[in-house]
Amino acid sequence: MASEFLVDSQLRLEFLQGMDLDGNPIYKTKTFNNLKTTATPENIQNVALAIADLQQHELMRVQRTNNYDIVAG
């Protein structure tokens, strides 16, 4: 039977930087490592919105990436 162990998380914010000459959106991302593995979605949303308030571009997406060690045993 395999077991999963959450080892780390990252926060990724995507901002709309503008439009290209063809009218397609240009996105810029910022990634923050070492997100607490115990952070709740509400905690993450609050932090993301606080960071977004400090930016000049509009926040479009907030993502969390979790990395697990999978151990067979």
TrEMBL record:
InterPro entries noted in UniProt: DUF1659
Residue span, DUF1659 domain: 4-71
Pfam families per record: DUF1659
Name of the protein described by the UniProt record: DUF1659 domain-containing protein
Organism the protein comes from: Calidifontibacillus erzurumensis
